[in-house]
Specification:
- This protein has 9 helices and 18 strands.
- By secondary structure, the chain is an alpha+beta fold.
- β13 and β14 form a beta hairpin.
- 20% of the residues are buried.
């Protein structure tokens, strides 16, 4: 994957021998900005307005989930999602042909049409700006039905660091002084079990990618969480103090409940692989994994997210005096103490005390 920053140097230089190996004899070695190797479990942060592309050179399908925050201060337009494409295109005629394969999509065909931005410029001016023949510009501007994902005519060999070298570089100590915009780290793997932020043997584990681990997130004001609940385990009832969340189910099943400020249940659903749901800021939520456990990734609208749990050793109940809890809920002091202490020492992930139905 490549992310292009304006004004940053081309730090990757391909020698002539590498270029000739692609059947391009006579061409000088290519130069380009850094190319990143991505793998399963990576979170990638792309700054607003930065051109980016990705190429799958593996032998497996790559599934990626993309989340954009239109409320971010970097967005000076309205709340409509816009993508400005430097290549590809989908004409109305081509989209209508494609939509016939899928029932119920004909109404969306017009909205999903697009052409790359070069098509809107004058051919002669473009040729002069790039100092290339008009025929080259004409091919860039012509209508395309290839869509957003295109098939390469032949395998591409793009110069990038070995995966082992890149992993060693990312794991080396950083003091922040060497973090400049041009070489800023843009990815963090959130699937490494040994680096979980929260772990309980019977509850599961959580890994959080925030601005401390991935400094570029402070510019995006976003973060991500990767979680794994063991069979029938619970994610303690809690609310988010800082952010809205979009949750994407990776594996397993989950019973998810969300409650608003009036005590109304606005969600009580069985969530399965491939489902996605939203948890607004301050809305209380409680989640219980199914018999086969549950794995998810959530994207948050804060680079430094904070949660307030309601049960467990670090909960709001634990912080309150027994008499306050007793009088607020009209229960005995003994019952209030049980509310405070019965989940000790567990915190965010709670081991099951009964099986799910």
């Amino acid at each position: 994957m490549g992310v292009s920053y304006p004004g940053c140097p081309e730090t990757f230089h391909e020698d002539q021998q590498f270029s000739r190996g692609q059947g391009q004899k006579g061409m000088s070695g290519d130069q380009h900005q850094k190319v990143h190797r991505i793998r399963r479990g990576d979170v990638i942060a792309v700054p607003a307005g930065a051109a980016h592309w990705c190429y799958n050179d593996g032998n497996e399908e790559l599934i990626a989930v993309s989340v954009l925050d239109l409320n971010n201060q970097a967005n000076q337009l309205d709340q409509n999602l816009r993508g400005f494409m430097l290549g590809g295109g989908q004409s109305r005629h081509g989209q209508e042909r494609a939509s016939r394969r899928y029932a119920g999509q004909s109404e969306r065909s017009h909205e999903e049409t697009f052409q790359n931005i070069f098509r809107g410029f004058d051919e002669e001016l473009m040729a002069e700006a790039f100092n290339v023949p008009r025929e080259t510009v004409r091919r860039m501007r012509q209508d395309s039905n290839r869509g957003l994902i295109v098939k390469c005519r032949e395998d591409m060999r793009i110069m990038s660091p070995d995966q082992e070298e890149e992993e060693q570089s990312e794991s080396s100590p950083r003091n922040g002084l060497e973090e400049t915009f041009c070489n800023m780290k843009i990815k963090q793997n959130i699937e490494l079990q040994r680096e979980a932020d929260v772990y309980t043997k019977q509850g599961g584990r959580i890994y959080i990618a925030n601005q401390q681990k991935l400094p570029i997130l402070q510019f995006l004001d976003m973060s991500a969480e990767r979680g794994h609940l063991m069979p029938n385990a619970l994610y303690t009832p809690h609310w988010s103090m800082t952010d809205n969340r979009v949750v994407y189910a990776l594996r397993g099943e989950l019973n998810a409940q969300v409650v608003d400020e009036r005590g109304n249940t606005i969600m009580n659903e069985r969530v399965r692989q491939g489902d996605m749901f939203v948890i607004p800021q301050f809305y209380a939520t409680l989640m219980r994994a199914g018999n086969n456990g549950f794995e998810w990734v959530s994207f948050k609208s804060s680079s430094q997210p904070m949660k307030s749990p309601m049960a467990g050793s670090i909960s709001v109940m634990r912080a309150m005096p027994v008499d306050v809890i007793s009088n607020a809920h009209q229960i005995s002091p003994r019952e209030a103490e049980q509310l405070k202490m019965n989940r000790d020492p567990e915190s965010m992930l709670l081991s099951p005390t009964r099986t799910s139905s």
